[in-house]
Amino acid sequence: MGFSESKVTRYFAWLLLTAAVAWLKLGYHEMWKDEWQAWFVAKDMNLSQILRFLYYEGHPALWYLYLKPFTLLASDQVWMLAIAHLLTVAGALYFILVRFRTPMWMGLLFVLSYFVFFEYGIVSRGYALVILFVFWATLHIRDGKPHQITSGIVVFLLCQTEVFGVLMALALTLYLFLTTQDRKSLLTSSWAKGLAAGILVFTICVFPRSSGHIARTHGKTGTLSDLLLNSIQGNLSNTFFPGSTPDTFRYGWTFAGLVLSIAALAGLWYMFRKNRPLLYTMLALVVMMTTFSFVIFPGGIRQWGMSFVFLICMTELLCSINTKPDFRPLVVAAVFSVFALVHGFKAVREDILIPFSNAREAGLFISEKVPVKVPVVALNKFESTPVIGYAGRKFFELPDGKEFSYFRWVDKVYVPTEEEIKLFGKFKGVGGVVIISPKPIDTLRYPSAKAWKSFTSTNFKNENYYLYSLPVK
C-alpha cells in the first residue's frame, strides 16, 4: 500500500519537525522549576498522595499520572522527563501535520509558531497534552463522531489536562450544539457524558477548598479596570500578535496593546464571518479565557497561547467545511502565525545562546563537589527545585529538617536562623553544611557562613544561586 506524494510529504514534515524539537530540547534547553515540579510530584508521591496534592498545584491529574511510569524507569531523569514530554509533542504534531486537512503550508506556520514549537514543544510541561487531546477531539467533531465511545474518552481526558482543556471542551461542545440538528441526541451522546464526567473529576481534583486560595494564586494587585484590561490585552494582543507589544504580565496594558487587541478581534471575525458557529465558538473561548484571567489567575503568555491552539482547531474545521478553497481566512491566520513564528525564532535563539537559568550549572557543581553525606540546606525551596533536578539529590528545608524535592505554591518561605542550621547540622552528625540561596545571604543573620561559589551568569529567567559553607562545630 503506497502513499500519495502529499501524504509522504506530510509524514516527512512531521518526522523532521519532531526531530528538530528533540534536538533543541535535549541539546540546549535547560529545565526550570515549573518543569521539574511536576516530575518530582510524580516521582516522590504515590498515586493517592498525587491526587490529594493537586489542590496546591491547580492542575488536574493527567500530566502527573502520565509522568509516573517514566519516573519508575528513570536512570537519567533529565533525559527521561524530556523524552516523556517529547512523545506528547510528537502526537500533537502528528495530528496537525498528517491528519488535519488544513493546507500543509498553513500547518507548518502553526507548528513553527512560538506557542506550538517553543512554549509547548521545547518547554517540558503538560500543555502539550492539551494540544494532543484538543486536536484529537477536533478530529472527532470534523468526522461527525460525537456518539463514539472514543469521543467521550477523548473529551474526558481533555478536561484532565488543564483548566484550559475544560474551557476548550466547553467551546467545542457549543460548536456541536450549534451545528447539530438532533440536540436531544447530543445530550445523551458519549461526548456529553465524557464532558460531564470530565468536569466533575476536574472540579473534585482542583477546586480551591479555602476561601483565600484564589486570592493567593491570583497574585496581582491593581484596580479592577487594570486587571480587566490586562486580561483583554494578554488574551488578544499577546496571543495573536506575540512580541508586538511588551509582555502584559510584566508591564501591564498599553494603548498600543489594546488597539492590537481590537485588531485581533477583527481578524477573528473576518476569518469566521461566513460561518457563525465557528465564529461564536472561537469568541466563546476567548471570552472564557479572558474571564478566567480576570477572576481567577492572570496567567502569562504560555496560558494565553491556548487560544492560539484553539485557533488551529477552528481553522481545521473551517478548511474541512469549505468545499471551495478560500484563502482569505488563511491569510489572517498566516498573519497571526508570522508574528508567532518571529517571536518563536527569538525564543529559540535565546534558549540556544543563554541558559534558561543557572540551575543546571549549580546542580552539577553540587553533584561533583558536595559529598552525599554533607546536607544541603535551601533557604528558598521554591527556587531550589530545578537545582535538585540537576544535582540528582534532595535538599533539606527548615524548620522541619526534612528532605524535599517539590514544593507547594501556597506555602510561605521560612528563612531559618544560623543557630537553627547549626542545630540541624549537629543532629545530622556532620561538621558543616552547605547553604544554597537564590540571592546573597544577610551576613548579619549568618555571620559564620562563608561564601563558596556563585552562579550568576546571564540567563533567561534571571535565576541565580549562591552556595555557602557553614561550620557546625
Plain-language structure description:
The protein has 24 helices and 6 strands. The protein has 473 residues and is mostly helical. The chain has 2 domains: 349 residues, no CATH class; 113 residues, no CATH class. The strands form 2 sheets. Strands 1-4-6-5 form a 4-stranded mixed beta sheet. It has a two-stranded antiparallel sheet with strand order 2-3. A hairpin with a 4-residue loop joins strand 2 and strand 3. Helix 10 runs antiparallel to helix 18.
Which key features would you list for this structure?
6 strands; 2 domains; elongated; 65% helix; 473 residues
Number of helices: 24
Our Rg estimate from Cα atoms comes to: 24 Å
Mean pLDDT across the residues is 90
End-to-end Cα distance, whole Å, is 76 Å
In short:
The protein has 473 residues and is mostly helical.
List the helices and strands and how they pair.
Blueprint: H1 5-27, H2 33-44, H3 47-57, H4 62-73, H5 77-99, H6 104-111, H7 114-122, H8 127-142, H9 149-159, H10 163-179, H11 183-187, H12 190-206, H13 213-218, H14 224-235, H15 237-240, H16 248-251, H17 255-272, H18 276-295, H19 301-304, H20 306-321, H21 327-353, H22 359-369, E1 376-378, H23 381-391, E2 395-397, E3 402-404, H24 418-428, E4 432-437, E5 450-455, E6 465-471
Parallel strand pairs: 1-4
Antiparallel strand pairs: 2-3, 4-6, 5-6
Helix pairs in contact: 1-5, 1-7, 2-4, 2-23, 4-5, 5-8, 7-21, 8-9, 8-10, 8-20, 9-12, 10-12, 10-18, 14-17, 14-18, 17-18, 17-21, 18-20, 22-23
